Amino acid sequence: MALRHLMSPLDFSTGELDKLMDLANDIEKYPQKYAHACAGKKIATLFYEPSTRTRLSFEAAMLNLGGSVLGFHSSDSSSAAKGESVSDTMRIVSCYADIAAMRHPKEGAPLVASMKSMIPVINAGDGGHQHPTQTLTDLLTIRSLKGHFEGLTIGLCGDLKFGRTVHSLINALSRYDNIRFVLISPEELRVPSYVREAMRAQKIPFEEVVKLDEETMKDLDILYMTRVQKERFFNEEDYLRMKDFYILDKEKMDLAPKKMLVLHPLPRVNEISVEVDNDERAAYFKQAQYGVYIRMALILTLLGLEVK
Ligand code: NCD
């Protein structure tokens, strides 16, 4: 099988994504069937930036498949602290593991690493650029709970400038028919121009608004909330000014459509009040669970393993 990496959600065709999601749904239904599929295989999690869900869900995914895990969870605890390049690190890790997931604060670092790798490399988030496995998680959540992508109106709210999950999700959803985006952000945190231009080039309808109010929410099928990305701000003052710009609380949810699902890649800070957690439309914890199934499906697929 040819060596294959995952750098962007567009690396898979929509047909391949369907297969991946079918596999994830099967894993959800019959976990036992997959319990030994990766016996003897190892995943390396190479995390140069903090993470809870992504790293642990990769590790849980491999453990659920009967494989094992190795890796590091900060650059201080790896040879990066001594000045080693990601390419050299990846070359070495290729000798120790069968597949790797890399998160890095620099845009493009996992891509550079993949060029020297002998094993599949998964981009687990590169700076403010992309986060393809979060997108696979989001797609699986939407497909499992809504049944389809076509015709959906999706509101993305918060830090659309630095939020890599947003960039990847727009990228991926833009391939389905009759998708419409409502981009809700403060003026300073609008989506980067390359994301806007890509939507224009593909003739994807979108609007950009500042307020998260009844008028904005009235046509939404999905409201995807995001945190203001503190670590990517140049100064603390701007962050403090922006951080509580949006707070989705019970009062706001009372104005939202009855079938509007609320998603969030997590971690949440203040942008969704805990009182919303009990609302039937709050799907973000379920979404985190889907993250494990889709990563299990992804590991199997990139390793070319089939379970009968
Ligand atoms: C996201 C990320 O790392 O970009 N987290 C995640 O992987 N679920 C979102 C965020 O940190 O805000």
Give a short overview.
With 308 residues, the protein is α/β, with parallel strands linked by helices.
Q: Radius of gyration in whole Å, from Cα?
A: 19 Å
Secondary-structure element sequence?
Answer: HEHEHEHEHEHEHEHEHHEH
Bound molecules: N-carbamoyl-L-aspartate
Tell me about the biggest sheet?
A: 5 strands, parallel
Mean pLDDT score, rounded? 96
Structural class: alpha/beta
Number of domains: 2
Architecture (CATH level 2) name of the largest domain: 3-Layer(aba) Sandwich
Shape: globular
> What's the end-to-end separation, in Å?
18 Å
In the sheet with the most strands, the strands line up as 7-6-5-8-9
Indicate the percent of residues in helices. 25-40%
Proportion of strand residues = 5-15%
Explain this structure to me?
The chain is an alpha/beta fold. The protein has two domains: 9-130 and 291-303, 3-Layer(aba) Sandwich (Rossmann fold); 132-288, Aspartate/ornithine carbamoyltransferase (Rossmann fold, 3-Layer(aba) Sandwich), CATH 3.40.50.1370. The chain contains eleven helices and nine strands. It has a five-stranded parallel sheet, with no helix packed on it. A four-stranded parallel sheet has the order 2-1-3-4, sandwiched between helices. Helix 7 (193-201) links the parallel strand 6 and strand 7. The longest helix has 19 residues, at 284-302. The radius of gyration is 19 Å and the shape is globular. The model has no long low-confidence stretch (mean pLDDT 96). The structure holds N-carbamoyl-L-aspartate. N-carbamoyl-L-aspartate binds at residues 53-54, 125, 131, 134, 164-165, 227, 265-267. N-carbamoyl-L-aspartate is lined by residues 53-54, 125, 131, 134, 164-165, 227, 265-267.
